[in-house]
Every structure is written in structure tokens, then in C-alpha cells.
Amino acid sequence: MCMNEEYLFLTILNSGPNHPRSSLDVFLRPLIDELKELWNNGVEAFDASLNQNFNLKAVLMWTISDFPAYGMLSGWTTHGRLSCPICMDDTKAFQLTNGKKTCWFDCHRRYLPHGHPLRKNKTNFLKRKDALNDYPPRTLTGKQVLKEQIRQVNPPKTSECGGNGHDVKKKGYGNWHNWHKESIFWELPYWTDLNLRHNLDVMHIEKNFFDNIINTVMNVKEKSKDTVKARLDIAIFCNRKDLHVDDYGRAPFPIFRLTPQAKERLLECVKHEVKFPDGYASDLASCVDIDGGKFSGMKSHDCHVFMERLLPFIFAELLPRNVHLALSGVGVFFRDLCSRSLKQFTVRSLKENIVIILCNLEKIFPPVFFDVMEHLAVHLPYEAELGGPVQYRWMYPFERFFKKLKSKAKNRRYPA
Hints:
Elements: H1 24-40, E1 43-47, E2 52-56, E3 63-64, H2 67-74, E4 94-95, E5 102-103, H3 142-153, H4 158-161, E6 198-199, H5 202-217, H6 228-237, H7 260-272, E7 288-289, E8 294-295, H8 300-314, H9 321-337, H10 344-362, H11 372-376, H12 380-387, H13 396-407
Parallel strand pairs: 3-6
Antiparallel strand pairs: 1-2, 4-5, 7-8
Helix pairs in contact: 5-8, 8-9, 9-10, 10-12
């Protein structure tokens, strides 16, 4: 019921041509004041079933947003080397030499059980590096975050002055912290007691993960992660001589890329053979561009369906077995994570499986493939353990609601 359209309502309209950044706290001020009133004193309400008044109290469980809005709401900047709000400063991310992108390659063996064979592997990951003494980042409570992180940085409260939160960067910003403000949500008396305050959006993580996979496997121009700069970075960071650029500037054909014949077979299969029940998914055939050799116009839900229903098997005869198994593992992981109900042993299994899946992908794809979206997948089972099924914590209901609201605006530039 809570995610149905009739129970959604728009409380704040943040209009203007500029990015709100920390100024969002100014718009959230009335909401925070009401939430504090609902927690401390409550309001008088009427119970129609009992035909009597009662004192109504309410609590904000968590926020639901995409990743850029996560930064505005939490105060932790979601880009750069420290963009992961769960790992914070205890990250293994680094910048690529040629690609100049932040990379999370070989950042996931630390989550493996000690004694796992992959921890001592120095061939398929970073050169001459093992993970025998690496540990996962510690999970901080709300009180620890406030005391050890935010209060130590002590940034100015831009919510009071309306600044953008990046005018004055505190010492250590980008090095050991990414805090650009103290979020207004910390004013709520119970906020430090919550283990899950802001949700990672499964919808956008899944879509970005899928886009990286399909564009790289199909070698889509300007979208593939397998570029000349990526190959040069492979030569620097990895022992994969079969992917190194030779003296004439030629890049060998990788095992994770479809041949022209295999690409054509994939597109023909999706266009003419893949069928879903009415109402289950949109017509994926309309997203097939055979002449361009790619998929185009795929919405988030199209990626969701392809990832969970087609990816586990569609590359079985088109790619080598190890590549197919690695990609199918990604599809199965998101399918199980997005199921209607979650059991504790299922979540424990997901926490173990996603680490193996990411390590298998790291043995195949170039380092530039692993941006923050691929990394965030390792934290999704932990949030499911705290918050329950993802259909109550992702963006799909709100995106559909926003689409309906936008349809009512006759002039998008000046909505009434």
C-alpha cells in the first residue's frame, strides 16, 4: 500500500535553474520541523474504525533517492575516490593512469573469507598484489558517523546560509573524508539510532551495471569500456599480455567481446524470439537496432527485465564458458535480490555470492569497467538485511509518479 500511487504525495517542489546541492536543506526545513513535532509531541488524529481520537506519532525510517541525490541528502559527496558512502575513507579505489577515472578494480577480495584461494592470487588481479591481510571496511553506527566523522570535520551549516556546500572545503576533503555539510536529518533525535538512513537505489545501480555489461560486450562505440586507454591501463595494472596493445597500436580481440556473427545472432534472438506475457515488460524488439549493432532506447525496467530474465542464459553459446558464467551470476544475483520476499539465509547467500561474482568479473574485464556502480552492488545485500525487500526501497514507484505529474505540465519550462 505504501508504494501505491494513491498514497504518494508531493510535499516539496524544489524549483530553480541551479543545482540545489546543500541548499536542499533549506527546502527540507519545514519537513524536519514537522517530523520533530510528530516524534516528540504527536498530533491529534481521528480513528474512523474506533470512532475516537488518538495521539498520532510518526518516524522517518529512511530516504529513497538516486545516487546524486544521496549526496545532497546525506552530506557525503558521491563522486571521486571516496564516493562510496559505506566504505567512506576505508576504500581501495584508485585513479587509472590513462583513463583518469576512479576505479574499484580489485577492491572486493577483502570481503572474501580468510583462506579463500583468490586472496593469494597475484596473476588475475593487480600485479604482484595479494589480499591476504585485507579486511572489509568496518560498519559505523549513526553515533560513530556523527562523532568520528561529521563532528571532527565540523563543516559550516550551509542550510542556514543557503550556500552550495562546496564553497569552503574542509581540511582533508577528498583525502580521508567527503563530507561537504552536516545534513539537516541529524537534527532528528532518533537519526543516530538508525542503521539504514539512506538507501542505495537498486533500480539505477542495476541499470548502470547492465549498460556497462551490454555496451562492453557488444563493443558499442563511445560507450564500451574496452578502449585503447583501457588497454594501456591493463598493461600497467594487470598481467594480461593477451590484451596488451602491440607496438603497432593494435589491440587483440578480447574474450569478453562478441564477434560480429554472435552480435547479429543476439540481436535477432531478442527481436524475433524473445516474448514476455502482456504487461510484464515493454516490447524489447523495439529496442533492437540491427543496423547499428546495438540496443537503443532501453528504459530502466527494460534493463531490469533483460538483466534478470535473459542475462543468465542468453550468452551461453555466444561467449566462452567462464565469461558466460560470470555474467549469468550477475543476472541471478539481481533476480534473487529483487524477489518479492527475502529470507535470512537467502540474504546471507547473496552477501557471499556477490563477492565471488565481482571477483570473477575482475578476472575478465579491464579495470576501467569497475566504476562505483559495480562496487555498490557489494553493499546491496547488507541493506536488504536491514531494510527488507527492495521493492519498498527503490525508485520505480516515484519515477512512475513523476511521469504522471510531468504529463500534467503543458509547458515543461513553466509548469503550472
